[in-house]
Write a structure and sequence with these properties.
homodimer; alpha+beta; 60s Ribosomal Protein L30, Chain: A; Phosphoribosyl-aminoimidazole Synthetase, Chain A, domain 2; 5-stranded antiparallel β-sheet; 7 helices; globular; disordered C terminus
């Protein structure tokens, strides 16, 4: 089997980047010192994010390389989605062992390209380097309406907390095969005043306290309401992570209207009210919050 | 000595990103799902680049961490410079072993911050992950005049080839302590019609053939003219790499004017004419081009 050592870096980059579909925003893509891109039009802000998946941590040596590639790009798209934004341009950095088979790299890249095509992302370059472990780092640009974008800082005491989809048990496969909620998030920020939003990557147990802390509030969770993946307990829905669903805070009035309009817009995806933001000092840790869980806003 | 395992990722990120100086282009920096940035004004294009430094490849375990951090950011700034651009916003991804000392990470980051401050770069986020080897991946945004930017593709037969500074022997220290040629490159694209330009990262032996190939030409080098670092042979100036100087192609008329105006603008930095582009089939490999050197445009 040919390996990276057989063909060298220039030839590898040529194979990976030839024939990449690019739209008219790209003035120079792979093959120059930098990508050169048309800036977003007036009224749009830039979004900029990077994320890495690392062997042994985010995937195993036996994970199919195409799934690794899909996950590497989809994770970052999920972050762009969390702002209500549209992903546009990506750079892919691969650190691989010298003995890595070309086929591994090519299949990994085909997973990246598959997700890029689905979400209209231009792959405009990247880099390969040798290293002692496999790392795929993805940098992603996006854009968002300057008037309508969500962040983590605007949550208020009294806000309803909602999540998309079902939570827990993603290790059984969904962590490799999730759908970033790009269109759902864009619909949300366009139609509603979203006080705070993020994607659930590390699990509600870590991410909800982060959202609360960024907004300067605490939270109460309705444990019986958590939308559990079939076969999962509420504790797993709380702690497992890698759900890549949206977590958002809106006013109670918005929540009522949202609960009416959501099923018409997205009949196949659940939206569940899981609790509310409360003032500092009034938060209650869920019953399955373990002693090791040191991120609760009230304790930090 | 405290390690990453002692404080955890959230606390580490908080320590690294607190107090980062940000200019008014930054609407949201570290701490949200994405950085949110004002887009460049009309008439400016975006530049987008990523680059990684990897333990054992780009630095050794005994390399001072501050120097590693400086190099990681300066390499990418050098790529933005090669387009005649201005670096603006960076994301820093660190992959480190769990047992890595906090002090190593903090010093590495202080090297990144030092270079960021020198070149007016906003550090707007990043990521840390555990892994079996140390990797620092930097993503950098920049901007450039839409009317004046250089690439690798516009070189013409007859163009003069010039380089800034001196070449060779960078392994003795300059590879950790070079100055990206940002202001020089901006001056060049503003004052002259630069047909093709790049930064010399892998060495003239690899980079000059790349520039020629991208422009569809070949080259002839005046071996006796190569500006060698004191103590280095022309063969070392040709092959060592990691010089991070500019390599550019301009018309012979521009070259003559440039050789007059350069010393007034940059009296402390040499600019040397090292050869010319010629039509395909007329290139001559330098005498020190070894058998292993398979990148010569005429042979590929």
């Amino acid at each position: 089997m040919p390996t990276l050592a057989h063909i060298g870096e220039d030839e590898l980059v040529r194979r990976l980047t030839t024939g990449l579909p690019l739209d008219r925003s790209v003035l120079a893509g792979a093959g120059d010192d930098c990508a050169v891109l048309h800036a977003p039009p007036p009224g749009r802000h830039l979004l900029f994010k990077t994320d890495a998946v690392v062997e042994h941590i985010h995937f195993l040596r036996e994970t199919p390389p195409r799934a690794i590639g899909r996950k590497a790009l989809a994770r970052v798209i999920s972050d762009i989605a969390a702002m209500g934004g549209q992903p546009t341009h990506a750079l892919i950095t691969l650190v691989v062992r010298r003995a890595t088979e070309l086929r591994f790299i090519e299949e990994l890249y085909s997973g990246v390209r598959e997700v890029a095509q689905t979400f209209g992302v231009n792959i405009v370059g990247g880099e390969t380097s040798r290293g002692d472990t496999t790392v795929i780092s993805v940098s992603l640009l996006g854009q968002v309406s300057a008037r309508r974008w969500s962040n983590r800082r605007g949550g208020k005491a009294g806000d309803a907390l909602l999540v998309t989809g079902r939570l827990g048990g993603s290790i059984k496969g969904r962590h490799l095969d999730f759908t970033p909620r790009v269109k759902e998030a864009q619909w949300l920020v366009k139609k509603f005043t979203v006080h705070a939003m993020m994607d659930i990557s590390d699990g509600l147990a870590k991410d909800l306290p982060r959202l609360a802390e960024a907004s300067g509030v605490e939270f109460v969770v309705d444990e019986s309401a958590l939308p559990c993946t079939p076969g999962c307990t509420p504790g797993q829905a709380w702690g497992d992570g890698e759900d890549y669903e949206l977590l958002l805070a809106v006013s109670p009035n918005s929540a009522a209207r949202l609960e009416t309009e959501w099923p018409r817009a997205f009949p196949k995806l659940e939206l569940t009210r899981i609790g509310k933001f409360v003032a500092k000092g009034q938060g209650i840790a869920p019953s399955f919050a373990t002693k090791g869980w040191d991120h609760f806003a009230g304790n930090s």
